[in-house]
Structures are given as C-alpha cells and as structure tokens.
Amino acid sequence: MSDLKRGLSEAVAAAFAAAGLPAELGRVTPSDRPDLADFQCNGALPAAKVAKRDPREIAAEVVANLTGDPRLASVEAAGLGFINMRVSDQALSARAAEIAADPRLGAQAVETARKVMIDYGGPNVAKPMHVGHLRSSIIGESLKRIYRFRGDTVLGDAHFGDWGYQMGLLIGAVTDEDASIAALVEQLNAKGEVSDADEAAAFALFDAKVSLADLDRLYPLAAARGKTEPDYRDRARKLTAELQARRAGYFLLWRHFAKVTKVALERDFHALGVDFDLWKGESDVDELIKPMVEDLEAKGLLVEDQGARIVHVAGPNETKKKKLPDGSVVVVPSPDPLLVVSSEGSAMYGTTDLATILDRKQSFGPDHVLYAVDQRQADHFEIVFRAAYLAGYAEKGSLEHVGFGTMNGTDGKPFKTREGGVLKLNDMIVMTRDKARERLHEAGLGAELDPDTFEDTAHKVAVAALKFADLQNFRGTSYVFDLDRFSSFEGKTGPYLLYQAVRVKSVLRKAQAEGAEPGPIVVAEPAERDLVLLLDAYDQALIDAYDKKAPNFIAEHAYKLAQAFSKFYAACPILSAEPAVKASRLALAQTTLRQLEQALDLLGIAATDRM
RNA sequence: GCGCCCAUAGCUCAACCGGAUAGAGCAUCCGCCUUCUAAGCGGACGGUUGCAGGUUCGAGUCCUGCUGGGCGCGCCA
Fold it and tell me: What pLDDT, in 10s, does the model give residues A482-497?
C-alpha cells in the first residue's frame, strides 16, 4: 500500500518510458496550484532539454499515455509543460478507506531497520535547565519517536555533563564556603576507604548544607573566577583530576551534586514528557578512558603537545591560517586536534565523548548515532568523529551531529529574561500551565472536569504549546524566543491541534450516544477531498522528518491536517447529515483523529479529551 | 585573522532534485455562534526573498563578490 503520490509517480514514470524518455522524470508532487490540480509532474521541462523538444509537446504525449487511468478524474498539460492531475473521488475514497484500515494510518516503515542511538547532549550537572535546554530534549525525544515508529531500534541517552572541570570548580567553591564540609571531605580523602556509615553521615551533612540552588548560585561565580585567576583555575583542574582519580571525599561530594541535580532534571523532563532509555553521563565511561588512552597510544595516534596529549585528525592537505596572541600568523592543521589528556592528567569533554562512542559500540553496537546538540558544537563533533574513525571506534559516516540553532531573545542574542537572568524551564512550564488553567475556566470547563482531569488537561495544553512552538521551526536555524508566542493558544499552536482533536472526540461521543456508526467513506465535497489529500500526505511528511532528522515536517503536517479538518468541520455537518453521509463523515473524522493523535505523539505531544 | 551558519510580509516562521501566482500564524480591518466545542471558520490588507553580478528556457533555492547579524577557533562543556 502506498500513497497517491507514489502510485501516480509509477504511472507517470511508465508514461515517460512509453514516450522514450527517462522514467525517473515521472516524479509526481502535490500541486503548487490547488486551483488547477491535486498533483503535478514537472518532468517534461527537463526532458525538453535532453530531447531537444518542446516541453509542451512532451507533456501532451505523456498526458496521452496517462489518459484512461481510473484514478484520474482529469490529466492535462498546462503552462510551460506541467502535467496536472486531478484524482477522482472514487480513488480518494478508496485511499481514505485504506488509511482508515491501517494501524499505521498510511505511513510506511523503513525497508531495513537499523540500530540507532540518540544522544541528547544532556544538560550539565549542577545547573538547572533553562528554556535553552528545551530544544535538545524535545527534538531528541521527537526524533526518537519518529525513528522508532519507522521501525528502527532506538535508544535515547541523556548523556549528562558530569565529569569535567565544572565539577572541580564546584568542589572548590563548596568546600571554600563551608568549613564543616571542607573538613569532612579532607577527612574522607585521608581515610581512603569509606564505610557505609561514613557514607551515610557524609550524605546527611551534604543534604543539609548543599542544595541545587546553592550549586546554581556558586557555579557562575566559580566559573568567573576560574577565568580571571590562574591559581584558582589550576586548583579546580587539580580537583577535577583528583575527582577522576576517585579520591573518596571528592567522589562522595560529587555523588551528592549528581543526586540533587538529577531530582530537578527528572522533574523537568517528566513534565515535558521526555524519557531517556539511558541516564548515562560522562562519568559512566570513566573506567574506559585509561585503556582507551593506552589503545590510542598503541595505535600511534596519541602525541605529546605542550604538556597535553592529543590526536591529530586533520588530513595532510588540511590546514588553516591562525593568528597567534603575538600577532603573527602561522599555518596549522585543520580541524584542530582532539585534546585527550590535559596537562593536569584529566579527561576532557572530547575524551569522554570518544570513550562513549567506544562504550556504545561495545554495549549496543549502533548502526548510527545521532547527536541532538547545539549547532555551536559542530566543530567539536567533527573532531571527535574523525578521531573515532581513525581509531576504528565507529564506522565512517555512522556518527552524525544533528545540530540545532540557538534560542535567542528578541534582541538576537541568546535569550535572557527582562532581569537579565535565564528563564528556568520549570518556571516557564508553571507560567504556561497557569495560563491554560485560566483559559479552561473561561471556557467553562472548570466545573465540568474533575480536579485531577482539569489539572492534567491544563498541563497537556501547556506542554503542547511549548513543544509545538519549538518543533514547528526547522531545527537547524536559530530562532527568536518570544514568551508570548510560546504561551499562545490561538492560531498555529499546539493547543489548536489539541482543540481539533477534542472537537472530533466530542462529535464521536455524540454519535456513539445516538447509536451512529462510522461506515464506508464516500468523498464528495471539496472539504472532504482536501482532508483526504492531507491524510494521504502523512507518509511523505514522515519520510522527510526521518531523512532530514527534522520534526518540523511532522509538525507542519499535523497543523495542515488539523486545519483541513477544521474547514471540513465548518463546511460539512456530520451528525445532522443523512445516514450514509453521516457514516462516511464519522469515518473520516475518526481517521483524522487517529492520524492527528499519532502525529502529535511523534512530536511528543499528548492529546486531551476535552478542553 | 581563519572557518561555519543565517538574512523571505510590520513581527515570528514555512517553502518537497531549480519550475506556474513565494505560503502560514500573529498584528490590523470586515463578516460568521437558536445546528456537531468561536482555543474556531470566511474575507481583506500585507513581498524588488539584504545588495550587485553570474549560470539557466526558468533562481528564495546553484555560483562569485559585497553588506549586515550569529557562532566557533586545544587544556570549559
């Protein structure tokens, strides 16, 4: 079973072949001119070039070969050589019946399933998530669902940043601030072996004294000092190396950091409906690093440079000019080398990334790994991927950075609140949910729904608003974060989509109450034709989203489908129609609902029953 | 200095290998609730696709240059 576009493409390809022209020119697309056609083929235009003939003549010949196709109500050559096709009502009705009978609602699975890992490039330990973190989690979540739905085996890994320099900074800052913690940490460090009782006592003290809010407050200060004060920085680096060497006191304190962060992250991710299959972090590959470094050394890839150890990843002719601090310009390899071991002996960002690639190869063996991470890290991933290919840790081309743009404020710079701080993701969710509650009361649903359902509905509306506002943008480009737009419920928004689903459900409930059943679909009205054409376009939207790793194709389809339904709803009465028409429209409405809910699910958006 | 990305309606964004009249939403204005949920529907207004060249029968899309903006460039992640 295939969509109309594909079916027609085969027919048009055959018609081209019959005319002695390359069959691949028979590619059919939805028409740019809905007033003239449902589908079109532009193949006669390039054909004219190779065949040195008039495109209109070619189009006419292809049209002649197509005439009589039962699916087509009309087929004609138009304009400069376009082939316009209008699908018959019977063919649309038949296609609608196919989609209605299909658990996948007309969307096909991939031919060969792969094992895919999605790396969410997770947030860092000790920092609350702000609105900028929305993107990687919801894009990653949506891609995971899309890939899984297409038939791949997919694992999503949060991949937290929990093992680097920022941990050394925090250990320093926390012990500086509180003498009792500093004393306990020193004591544990000296002791080396830590008993269960020691551990419990330590966590009791840490729990009492160090919250996420403290870490959030201390980190920016420590980071700033690290930049300006070399001594402070060097101590943080040493602390990082000591943590990575698992000095008992530092390690316990670090485990506390990770714990308080995880509680907040779980709350935020859960609220967004984002689930990770793996809650791994950089620290999880720590034990792989030493053997990996030895392996890189054995393979002759690791070289000493300015006290650090690096892997060169540039090819022989890949160079760039670089300006040195003294103003002179030198030619250096490009891309930059991968820094594997710092001069303090600690693992770097790229080191843990490389070890993670190795870890995944051993544990899961993915055919493909997608990194849903900020576009700004493109160079970094290029370097890590090259190193992984050189070392044989991944098959060339199997690692892919699915970059996305940053979320900027209306001034074009990374988003800040009016007060100059970052807007925390949780605050954003709470704010939008409050607005959804207000709106539900206005609509008179406050009293009708029981409190739990009411709360659940408000939450779903809020999440739909936030996610759809982001996912409707192509992931690659930066966009402006506008609070009003993200918490808007009218127009091209998540709540609009939920609302259309709610209207269908309401009609279906009433139909059921009066004993009316969906029946055979018979397409007749223009609004019905348009709706079925949209239902038919689902497969292509899914293919585009999959191939381009871009959920906005699904978002666009869901919106257009909801819009087509809304027009159908306004133009075609359902319950008051005569029995056969009523049964047909009920079936159309039900099929639309199922596809809409499925598309929303692929975006990670949950539907509601009433709103 | 070198490199990557971006520039489309007043605003925020789309646009399927280069194809007909570049589409949505918001905002503004005008209509539509005694019939299935008005978080809706219909209509109007709104464009020299940053600028200048080039390739092509045809360019928002490809190439070159320029302007403007964002980002990155080994011991943060």
Answer: 888 888 999 999 999 9
Are β-strands A115-119 and A153-157 bridged in parallel, bridged antiparallel, or unpaired? parallel
Nucleotide nearest to A465 (CA to C1'): B39
CB within 8 Å of A462: residues ≥ 6 apart = A429, A432, A433, A435, A436, A487
Where do you find CATH 3.30.1360.70 in chain A?
Answer: 4-87
CA distances for A183 relative to A73, A176, A179, A249, angstroms: 85, 10, 6, 10
Q: What pLDDT does A315 receive?
A: 80
Q: What is the pLDDT of residue A303?
A: 93
A155 touches strand B (CB under 7 A): no
CATH homologous superfamily for the domain A4-87 = Arginyl tRNA synthetase N-terminal domain (3.30.1360.70)
- In sequence order, the 6+-apart residues with CB closer than 8 A to the CB of A380 are A349, A350
The yes/no answer on whether domain A425-603 falls in CATH 1.10.10.10 is no
Q: CA of A94 vs C1' of B16, distance in Å?
A: 25
A2 touches strand B (CB under 7 A): no
pLDDT at residue A387, as a whole number: 96
Collapsing DSSP states into helix, strand and coil, what is residue A480? strand
Give the tens place of pLDDT for each residue, A362-405.
Answer: 999 999 999 999 888 999 999 999 999 999 999 999 999 998 88
CB A445 under 7 Å to nucleic chain B = yes
Residue ranges of chain A that CATH labels 1.10.730.10: 425-603
Cα–Cα distance for residue pair A498/A609, rounded to 1 Å: 9
Residues of chain A with pLDDT under 70: 1, 323-328, 410-421
- Four-CA torsion A501, A507, A509, A512, nearest 10 degrees: -130
Contacts of A304 (CB under 8 A, 6+ apart): none
Dist. CA A574–CA A583, nearest whole Å: 8
- Chain B footprint positions (protein CB, under 7 Å): 1-7, 11-17, 19-21, 24-27, 35-42, 57-58, 69-77
Gap between the Cα atoms of A150 and A170, Å rounded: 43
Q: How many helices, marked H, and strands, marked E, lie in chain A?
A: 22, 15
Q: Quick one: pLDDT at residue A332?
A: 78
Residue A327: per-residue pLDDT: 61
Is the C-beta of residue A281 closer than 7 Å to nucleic acid chain B? no
**Contact yes or no for A404/A136 (Cβ under 8 A):** yes
Please report how the helices A248-272 and A451-471 are oriented relative to each other, as an axis angle in degrees rounded to 10: 100
